[in-house]
Amino acid sequence: MKFLIPSLIATSLALAPFASAQMGAPAPKSETVLAVEKALASPIRTPEERARDARERKPAQTLEFFGLKPDMTVVEIMPGAGWYTKILGQVLADKGQLHLFGGAARLEPRLKEWGLDKVKIAEGKFATKPSGQFGVFDADAIEIPLKNVDLVLTFRNLHNMTPGARAMVNKAVFASLKPGGIYGVVDHTRRHNDPTSSENWRRIDPVIVIKEALDAGFEFEAFSDLHFRPDDELRFDSQRPTVGGYSDRFTLKFRKPAR
What we know:
This protein has about 260 residues and is an alpha/beta fold. The chain is about 35% helix and about 20% strand.
């Protein structure tokens, strides 16, 4: 035994550098992640917005997954109250461009308040109309007035559209992207083949979203489980107290073919 112990110690010491190399130091943060983290710390963001960062929306990981770079031209569709706009607008301020499309004009006064003067409103055509279903709109025409865009993003919006409106959005996105450009989608997950009800209308089946994007000419590039929530049974409205606004969400990445 007395000969075995020194031998074991020597072996352990010899293997220590190898084990350390295998574990490795943390990979350096990308330019995108550093820029997003700087934007997240900005004083233009509210405490309520910050509360959604790490647990729910994971913006740095999400935007890195979609391939965001600070020098890109990006379109955000239906930006809502501007949660992502505040981040994207800062990341793209120096070397890139951010355009807001789809009900975005109401954000224009806020952009100046936030110091995001370089963010532009893309007017185009966004002629929507009621569909007869609560919370879901139809459309007569949707056209994005931009070409050769690097990245188009939409967060939790497709569930608010009829199949016809989504087809128009997908067509408009495809036309606006450059060859090889990326279309990134995040939305509330509906159980596959679950018929629409008052509980699930604010959700959408990711299989349908993938099929519709493929029908529009996109290639399905990748998906991420960043927004998987194991305790969301996909049964109830994402705004129900039991779900707490923190629903299971799918994260899909599509590419316009290079040729």
